[in-house]
């Protein structure tokens, strides 16, 4: 039998307008109410214990409601003692007489005395330069008001409220001049000695952290707009390399802006606008940047290397991609280490070489540029495979030690025996004569 009387359920039902409730349902509803109340109180006791207290408070009950996704109780707390009244028609049923209050009376009532217990509540004023829309901060409508020295008030429901707008990210004049000088050198004089000194400063200076978001945006914007400018792209990658080398900078929050630019310089279809532009070297630098980022921040972002590996593998196995894109993908995968090459490149090597072989032969590919690109991709594959084989052979140090020579004397002469040279032919489908 439930400890909640069925008369209580009947009274509550009548208070919300249900007058014809079946009496047979009252015991079942009373049992369910008891179960729900016990559940909420158990959660409230847990909240009390986690708060290191021995007294159950109303805040604990509200926290229990939040944990159970129940709407909290709204109302006006009064310090007066509770007034119980007997329910009409029931001898042993009482209820609390809740007096209805007008909002006008509550607003016009004098303020109570300040409580003795003080509390400090923390909230985020800004996260990465963006102000969150929470009640503690200024409302968004107020921030949208045009800037005017005389407009220092914001009217809400006809009431004037003085608002202090959040402080903007202010850079010192020295940092502004530094940023402007670095960007100017990057765009116009990337081959000068002064630019090399600027790279050294970016890699060692400890006071450049306020400029990191600005350099990140500058690199991303310039890469997206200047894919045909090889020298500018190379200078931008050198800036990224210097920023990553600086031990005083906190780069992690800006990796999501830097990495797309680096990947673009690695697997873009066309980098530069001239035949003399050595975009192969640019792709090599970008591959080393990818490997450096994964090595340094892979433990912080556990999905960083899998996502980059997936992108590079897709570019490598996509037959619609250009050969320079395949080259960049192979270099990026090889830079990530021998394990990546062994798991992702070697299993796909034989079918890929069957497609690459016609592009390398003069009889089948008349375009000299295409043949050159194919041989570049082939060389990248050979280096990646050789690196993987070397790592496997390092497990057997005896195979990597220099061959020993046997000496013996015969008729007063010293004879030396040399082991015969053994040539190993790799990938016979491509190399016919070893």
Short structural summary:
This protein is mainly α.
**Continuous helix count:** 17
Please give the order of strands in the largest beta sheet. Answer: 1-2
Sequence stretches where pLDDT stays below 50 over 5 or more residues: 145-152, 406-410, 412-434
Distance between the termini: 93 Å
Helix content: 40-55%
Apparent shape: elongated
Outline the biggest β-sheet. 2 strands, antiparallel
How many β strands by DSSP? 6
Mean pLDDT score, rounded? 78
Helices and strands: which structural class? mainly alpha
Report the radius of gyration as a whole number of Å.
Answer: 37 Å
SSE topology string: HHHEEHHEEHHHHHHHHHHHHEE
Please indicate the percent range of residues in DSSP E strands (runs of 2 or more). Answer: 5-15%
Family: Belongs to the TAF6 family.
Protein name: TATA box binding protein associated factor (TAF) histone-like fold domain-containing protein
Organism: Ilex paraguariensis
Keywords: Activator, Nucleus, Transcription, Transcription regulation
